[in-house]
Amino acid sequence: MKEQIQLARRYARMVWPYRWPALALASVICLIGWVYVLFIPNSYEVSAKIFVDTRSMLRPLMRGLAVDNDTLASSASLMKRTLVTRPNLEDVARKVDLDLSAKTDREFDTIVATMAKKIKLSGTVQDNIYEISYEDSDVQLAKRIVDELLNSFLETALGSNRKDTASTQKFLEQQISEYEKRLLEAEQRLKEFKQRNVGLMPSEGASYFQDLETARARLRTAQLDVQEAENRSNTLRMQLEGEEPVLGMMGDSRGLMSPVGSQYDGRIAKLEAAVDQLRMQYTDKHPEVVATLQQLEDLKNRRDEELAAAAESQAADGGADLGGGDSSLVYQDVKLALAEAEAEVAGLRARVDSYGNEVKMLEKQVDTMPEIEAELKRLDRDYGLNKQQYDELLKRREAARLSEEVDQRGDDIKLKIIEPPRIPLSPVGPKRVQLMSLVLVMSLGLGGGFAFLMSQINPRFYSAEDVKEIAQLPILGTVSLVFNERQRTERRMEMIVFALVLFGLLSLYGGLVGLEMMNFDLNSRISKLVEKTA
User: pLDDT (tens digit, 9 = 90+) per residue, 283-336?
Assistant: First the structure.
């Protein structure tokens, strides 16, 4: 720390002999700089505030039916997109007659670029208040520019919805027309395909292989029905011929067959076939298998009871012969039942033949039907996609129409100018206090730098230590300068004058700063004084 203090004292001794040139240079720089700062024109800022009122009773009621338009809700981005665009700025410049001061296109471009830099846009989405401001030395010009920017914003904001809605409606109409044409073409292709493949179209909701499996299942069921009907017909025929059926033929535990037992045989055979079918898929403990077996057992028990009752009736009648002649009532009943059974067999055989032909036809089409089915699915899918898009576009068009009507109601979104542009009473710039302080600091720094430079150009020894350091020789002694009374008086007067000049410079700085802080417009007064003098 001691070395730094000694170094500072050394530099102070070096620059002290040149204090007057340094002070003169600092004073000149301060005076020139302060005068320049005072002559800088005042800058005025004109601003306007807009409130975007998005509250509306109609908009919530139409939510879901009309398109939600948030263009005005995001007014900050709207202003940035429209107000600072080149065409809009050129239009504003022409309206305020800035183009009259430009002689060439380059000068006009410079004017527009300068105006764009001075425009400030700000706002918050939370309270929907936005501000447009412009700063310029000509307060009347600044107000006119803000007025034009405000009018441009209002026109853009109020007209953007209708313009967007009109363009949207036009686009939707074009798309609807195009998709309507596609839909008609898809319908025509589907109709022609169905006409070319009449009789080969798959069933509704089923594929070719499902239709084939269904036809085979119907054929198996019809064949089983034919077998049952033939068994019943053979049984009745044997009874008419006087043959007594045994257990091996019909499965009767008593070896006796009666026409009564034949009404259960078909149902029993069907249930047995159903049990076989179920056992191919499930075990004997499955609920469906257990229920079917129980039903089958009940039918067999009922058949046995009926056969036993018929046997007892025959024994009571003395074993009357069922085939004794036309006079026997039983014979007539059996003969009638045989005729009905044979008719049923014939009908079932015809059904079997029909189902068989259907299965054969489907099996022959195993190569063509899947292709037809795939082509039909493709056409249906193409038609479905076009139909879905067409219906969606119709909904969008209706929503856009409702939105247009909502926008034209006038109570949807309102723009309110809560603070119109006005001429400010005091300027916002330049910051003269800061500029004057900067001039003072720079002038003192330049003065000190000039004194230091002069000390380096004309170096001197100011102490015995400096001589010893340079000469590298021991100092035997020093001779001091003794001032007389007149010389001491002169040095004191010189110091007083130097202090007064420095104090006057600082006092002038303090006075100018004080006047600026009291909003005393020196620039206007000096400008008026210069105009009067001129």
Answer: 787 767 777 788 788 778 877 777 777 667 666 654 444 444 443 466 677 777
What residues does 132 pair with on adjacent strands? Answer: 48, 121
Q: Which helix (H) or strand (E) holds 205?
A: none
Domains of the chain: 2-40+430-533 (no CATH), 44-177+395-419 (3.30.1890)
* Strand arrangement of the beta sheet that strand 119-124 belongs to: 119-124, 129-136, 44-53, 414-419
How is residue 203 annotated by DSSP? P
Q: Which of 349, 133, 144 is nearest to 228 (CA)?
A: 349
Give the Cα separation of 471 and 459 in Å (integer). Answer: 15
Residues near 168 by Cβ (< 8 Å), separated by ≥ 6?
400
- At residue 205, the pLDDT reads 47
Model pTM greater than 0.70?
no
CA 132 to CA 143: how far, in whole Å? Answer: 11
Phi and psi dihedrals of 285, rounded to 5? -90, 0
Measured in whole angstroms, how far is the alpha carbon of residue 483 from the centre of its chain? 91
Contact residues for 125 (Cβ-Cβ < 8 A; gap 6+): 73, 74, 76
Sequence-distant (6+) residues with CB within 8 A of 108 are 90, 93, 99, 102
pLDDT digits (tens, 9 = 90+) for 471-482: 778 877 777 777
The 3-class SS string of 275-325 reads HHHHHCCCCCCCHHHHHHHHHHHHHHHHHHHHHHHHHHHHHHCCCCCCCCC
Q: How far apart (Å, rounded) are the C-alpha atoms in residues 375 and 379?
A: 6
Helix (H), strand (E) counts: the chain = 17, 4
What is the H or E stretch that residue 135 is in? Answer: strand 129-136
